[in-house]
Structures are given as C-alpha cells and as structure tokens.
Automatic annotation (TrEMBL):
Pfam families: DHODB_Fe-S_bind. It comes from the Bacteria. SUPFAM superfamilies: Ferredoxin reductase-like, C-terminal NADP-linked domain, Riboflavin synthase domain-like. FAD binds at R48, P49, I50, S51, G70, T71. The lineage of its organism: Bacteria, Pseudomonadati, Spirochaetota, Spirochaetia, Brachyspirales. It comes from Brachyspira pilosicoli. This is Dihydroorotate dehydrogenase electron transfer subunit. [2Fe-2S] cluster binds at C215, C220, C223, C240. Residues 210-250 form the Dihydroorotate dehydrogenase electron transfer subunit iron-sulphur cluster binding domain.
Amino acid sequence: MFLEDCEIVENKKISEDKYILKIKSKEAFKHIKAGQFFMLKSSTYLRRPISVHYVSNEEIEFYYQVKGEGTKYLSTLKERVNIQGPLGNGFDTNINNKKVLIAAGGMGIAPIKLLIEKLTNNNNNITLVMGGANKYALNIMERFNTNNINLHIVTDDGSVGDKCNAVEKTNEIIKKEKFDIIYTCGPTIMMNGIIKIALANNILCYASLERRMACGVNACLGCNVEVSYDNKTVVLKKACSDGPVFDAKYLWIKNE
C-alpha cells in the first residue's frame, strides 16, 4: 500500500454525474490488480473508495459518480489529489485460454476496462454484457477497446443496444453457449441474478461488491459482507480487505 500525492492529468465530466479522473503515479501504478481500489482524500471529509478503471504507463484512471459532498469535492480538483492504495483483493486474472463472460451494470462498469485487458492478454475468449439505464449511462464505453470481445449492450429503455437488463441477456447467452468463468460487478440485484445463473450452471463466478467504507484497511469494520462456507452458518468478511472480489458461491447474497 502506498500514500502518494499525485498530479491530476484529467478530471473530466463524461455524463450528467460521472467523471474520469486520471492521475500521474510514481509507484502505486506498478502494483495494481484489476478490481482493486484506492482511498482518495476528499478535503476534510473521509477518504472515498474509488475503483481503478485503468492503468497505462504511470497513469491511473478512476471512473466515479458524484453522489455526495465527498465525490462532489473530488470533481472540483484540478491539480493534485492524495491517494492511498492499491487496496483489497482484485479479480483472479491468472487464467489462460478460457471462455469468459463478464456481466457489468451501472457503476459496476468501473473496474471492467482493466479486467478485459488482463484477460485478453492471456488469450481468453471474452463475452461482455454491459448494462445501463440508458445510452447516457454507457458513455464510458467510448473509452473501451472492444475489438477482440463479443459485446452485448443492454439498456432499460432500449435507447442503445437491446431493451432488457444484464441478467436477462446473460441468461439468454448461457442457454446457447458454455463458459468456464463469469465475472460480475454492478447493483446488488443484478449480481444476485448473475450469481444464481452461474450456480445453476455450475460455473465459477467472481463478484465484486460495493460497500460503504470509512478506512479501506480493515479498521472501521463498516464494510461487512455475509458469507457462508456450509450454506448454513453466516460469517462476516470485510469488503475492503477480504474483497471487494469474492468467490460468489460463498456469498450469502445469493439467498436473498
């Protein structure tokens, strides 16, 4: 874990309340895994946990949504920002020549760009289901390289792609094709549906969870995740240190 005061290269609004923050890092960028996050300093407020969107050379990109005073403050920064990380356990990308399905929706799109690059570099066949409320929610896709993946865009209102949700599209695809692994990140209700599909079809599934957190380092105990290793007894894990990525078959979320 590193603490760095970083130069801001770009802090650009790309839709009504969503931004891309690109910073210059001296050391932290070397140690990032897809699915990890940083705690970004936000004035006098608590640091905000923001997923890594992409890493290139010495630059780290974050894709974030303005939801409160802390992220509103982040959106005003122009020169420098203090970061803490990388934190958490990311996605397992140490796989080769597998058939992979990625299902992402809403702000769960944030860690997917780097995940795709890592998996593509290992010669995996990737199908991506990307969901949003409307076409504006998917403006971030302009920054994705989708040349070597099977892309399925879905929106709630049908303004771009198919008019359905990510769970419905994933279920449709799974009925026609076999996959070795599923990765998912997005709203709880969406991931719950994806996890059920994976379990029903005996497919290994990794889910990246979002939780409110104040510290990011397993100190505040505010980001509890319920898991069960025997499908009976529930134990608490921490999204910041045990996650945010979990083997979905252990998540108690599947029984909600």
